[in-house]
């Protein structure tokens, strides 16, 4: 049984709290949040019993935990992740890993040095439709993958504590907070690109919309991410993949969401496995399905139980995709193609 | 009344044949197609009624009276027949893309000027209702500045062309020039020339079957993707998503056009029933009837679109960003 403490009970913290409640091998024993009273009320609403503390230090003194799950605003990831590692606890840290390449590398290196297990919340690597797509690519049922376009679009996030998501200094804007999901998935599926060319829209909240061309040897890959859509526009994640003998298409707003067309065959739905994790009851954020979040935490806890280091969404992988997302921002700022150094 | 000679009775020729009977000021007086009488049944099944068929332009010109030629032949044949038409003083409506290379396009534009006749090119997206609406909203500024625009055009491999010319790179240059040029041309119409392009694509035995381009503008961020390497039964999609300061206009040919503005729920916009093929020909015939110069989708504009697509192909080939500022 893994005893878990969550730091930061905002949108993502409450998502995770609901998942730990369902995981057999994990128990949420503590929550750290500067708004202690609100956190206590939110936990009560979810029917979760856990001790609430105002600071990490108080929690550490009073509780024995195995794992700390950092769900704080991005600017607080580096200081808290390093504290958790220094305390010798296993670490789950929300995405993006950090706001700078240096901080990303520092966290990944510290975890390695200390030997704690570490996973980053790059949940799209665990998202049911993306998992099914990844398996389809590997099966080569339609031959080699030729091209891939990915999109992620949403209204402005209105649900974050102190509105930190709309503060570029704290979140890195849509480019680092939203679009990085696709940057990271491109890394996961295809490896590091050789270079990136991006253009973006910048406003008072930072890079609010970005288009990127990922340069690979024999593949055409593009992605788009923006959260400058009107409030009621909703949320969409989507991709289109063309193979030598087929195509796979995903659209979170379509029914069915995931389809495949092979050779001269008809378009049909591509089956995918949804964990029996249900929906979030808080109503906040873009996505209410716990599916991908459930899968990532379940995988992490299972690694801890088996005393094996996580292999998917590791610190190094997250530091690499962060570096590419930052290169995209650099490309958009300079109107030049930016090379990605191989790691 | 404009008397039209329709040159080429393939997919696009048939589409145009369905439009002319709806126009009160035009009639098709004959068809030129190298297949001649073989057309028989498909011609009789069309709305044209009994019209004579010729295997070449010269024999049609000897026997018929007409004021304009509508060229719906494969791209590599555009130049020759356009020059023949201008030589005998006819106006020309020519399918897109205007030609396969800059030299042929310039020859056509020059021949029109020398003959004092009109040359319009079938960049129908400039006339397609949803795209007309997008331009209207951009020009009006009613929802604030345009911040970003992404355009897409996806389909299965074309299996309909006579002699499979569309899949032969030396006759068509692939999806980049035959399909994606619709969006390139529309961007020039909407935003003018970009400062630079960076493209990537896939080149196979049929030419550039897929291309995705970022266009650098001083203002909105713009990307467009065109591909016809989808499976046969995948279907067809054209789409765009335009983000303005205070609204988003989304179009997908599979689901329609919606406008989301401010805090209101997104609304589905209703569009006129006729498509761009109707509106482009109605505009061309209208200009001829009124003796006005064509100003939308002229030969010169189509040459610029061709030029830009060729630059995109060069960018995809060289994997370099190409600057267009002088």
Class by alpha and beta content of chain B = alpha/beta
What is the mean pLDDT of chain B?
95
- Domains of chain B (count): 2
The most extensive contact between chains is:
A-B, 41 and 42 residues
Provide the CATH superfamily of the largest domain in chain B. Answer: Dihydrodipicolinate Reductase, domain 2
Helix percentage of chain B: 25-40%
Task: Tell me the major beta sheet of chain B.
Answer: 9 strands, mixed
What report would you give on this structure?
The complex is a heterodimer of chains A (343) and B (326). Chain A has helices at residues 11-22, 36-46, 56-62, 77-86, 101-114, 128-139, 168-171, 173-177, 180-190, 291-306, 315-334, and strands at 2-7, 26-32, 51-53, 67-70, 90-94, 118-121, 145-155, 195-203, 206-215, 220-229, 235-243, 246-251, 258-262, 268-269, 338-339. By secondary structure, chain A is an alpha/beta fold. A nine-stranded mixed β-sheet of chain A has the order 14-13-12-11-7-10-9-8-15. In chain A, strands 3-2-1-4-5-6 form a six-stranded parallel β-sheet, sandwiched between helices. In chain A, helix 1 (11-22) links the parallel strand 1 and strand 2. Chain A starts with a strand and ends with a strand. The mean pLDDT of chain A is 95. Chain B is of the alpha/beta class. Chain B folds into two domains: 2-123, Rossmann fold (3-Layer(aba) Sandwich), CATH 3.40.50; 125-278 and 305-323, 2-Layer Sandwich (Dihydrodipicolinate Reductase, domain 2). Chain B has helices at residues 11-19, 40-44, 57-63, 78-87, 102-115, 129-140, 169-172, 175-178, 181-191, 276-290, 299-318, and strands spanning 2-7, 26-32, 53-54, 68-71, 91-95, 119-122, 146-156, 196-204, 207-216, 221-230, 236-244, 247-252, 256-261, 267-268, 322-323. The longest helix of chain B is centred in the C-terminal third of the chain and has 20 residues, at 299-318. Chain A binds chain B through residues 146-147, 149, 153, 197-201, 209-211, 213, 215, 220-222, 224, 226, 228-234, 240, 242, 245-247, 261-267, 335-337, and chain B through 147-148, 150, 152, 154, 196, 198, 200-202, 210, 212, 214, 216, 220-223, 225, 227, 229-235, 241, 243, 246-248, 260-266, 319-321.
């Amino acid at each position: 049984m893994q005893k878990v403490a969550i730091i930061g009970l905002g949108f993502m913290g409450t998502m995770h709290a609901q998942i730990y409640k369902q995981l057999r091998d994990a128990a949420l024993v503590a929550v750290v949040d500067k708004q202690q009273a609100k956190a206590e009320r939110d936990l009560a609403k979810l029917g979760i019993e856990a001790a609430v503390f105002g600071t990490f230090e108080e929690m550490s003194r009073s509780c024995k935990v195995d794992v700390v799950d950092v769900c704080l605003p991005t600017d607080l990831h580096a200081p808290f992740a390093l504290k958790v590692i220094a305390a010798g606890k296993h670490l789950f840290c929300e995405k993006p890993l950090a706001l700078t390449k240096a901080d990303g590398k520092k966290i990944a290196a510290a975890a390695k040095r200390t030997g704690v297990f570490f996973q980053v919340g790059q949940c799209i690597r665990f998202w049911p439709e993306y998992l099914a797509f990844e398996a389809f690519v590997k099966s080569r049922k339609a031959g080699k993958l030729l091209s891939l376009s990915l999109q992620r679009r949403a209204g402005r996030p209105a649900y974050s504590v102190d509105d930190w998501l709309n503060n570029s200094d704290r979140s890195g804007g849509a480019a680092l907070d939203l679009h990085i999901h696709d940057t990271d998935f491109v890394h996961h599926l295809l490896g590091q690109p050789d270079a990136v060319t991006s253009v973006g829209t910048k406003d008072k909240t930072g890079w609010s919309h970005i288009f990127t061309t990922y340069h690979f040897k024999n593949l055409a890959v593009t992605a788009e991410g923006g959260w400058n859509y009107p409030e009621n526009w909703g949320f969409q994640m989507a991709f289109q993949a063309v193979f030598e003998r087929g195509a796979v298409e995903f659209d979170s707003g379509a029914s069915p969401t995931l389809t495949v067309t092979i050779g001269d065959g008809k378009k049909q739905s591509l089956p995918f496995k949804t964990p029996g994790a249900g929906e979030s009851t808080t109503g906040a954020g873009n996505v209410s399905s716990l599916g991908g979040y459930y899968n990532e935490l379940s995988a992490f806890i299972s690694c801890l139980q088996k005393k094996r280091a996580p292999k998917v969404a590791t610190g190094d992988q997250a530091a690499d995709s962060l570096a590419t997302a930052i290169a995209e921002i650099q490309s958009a700022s300079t109107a030049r193609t930016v090379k990605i150094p191989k790691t | 009344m404009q008397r039209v000679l329709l040159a080429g009775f393939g997919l696009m020729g048939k589409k145009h044949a369905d439009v002319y009977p709806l126009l009160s000021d035009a009639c098709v007086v004959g068809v030129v197609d190298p297949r001649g009488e073989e057309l028989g049944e498909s011609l009789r099944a069309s709305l044209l009624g009994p019209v004579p068929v010729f295997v070449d332009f010269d024999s049609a010109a000897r026997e018929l009276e007409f004021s304009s030629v509508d060229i719906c032949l494969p791209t590599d044949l555009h130049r020759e027949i356009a020059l023949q038409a201008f030589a005998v003083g006819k106006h020309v409506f020519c399918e897109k893309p205007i030609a396969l290379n800059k030299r042929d396009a310039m020859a056509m534009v020059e021949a029109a000027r020398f003959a004092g006749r009109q040359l319009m090119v079938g960049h129908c997206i400039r006339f397609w209702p949803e795209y007309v609406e997008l331009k209207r909203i951009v020009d009006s500024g009613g929802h604030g500045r345009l911040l970003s625009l992404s355009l897409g055009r996806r389909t299965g491999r074309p299996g309909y062309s006579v002699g499979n010319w569309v899949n032969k790179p030396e006759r068509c240059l692939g999806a980049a020039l035959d399909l994606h040029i619709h969006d390139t041309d529309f961007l020039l119409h909407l935003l003018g020339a970009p400062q630079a392009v960076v493209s990537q694509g896939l080149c196979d035995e049929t030419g550039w079957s897929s291309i995705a381009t970022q266009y650098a503008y001083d203002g909105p961020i713009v990307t467009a993707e065109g591909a016809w390497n989808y499976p046969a039964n995948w279907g067809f999609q054209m789409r765009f998503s335009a983000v303005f300061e205070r609204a988003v206009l989304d179009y997908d040919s599979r689901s329609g056009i919606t406008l989301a503005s401010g805090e209101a729920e997104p609304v589905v916009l209703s569009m006129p029933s006729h498509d761009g093929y109707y509106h482009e020909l109605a505009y061309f015939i209208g200009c001829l009837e009124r003796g006005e110069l064509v100003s939308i989708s002229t030969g010169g504009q189509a040459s610029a679109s061709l030029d830009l697509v060729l630059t995109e192909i060069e960018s995809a080939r060289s994997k370099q960003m190409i600057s267009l500022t002088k």
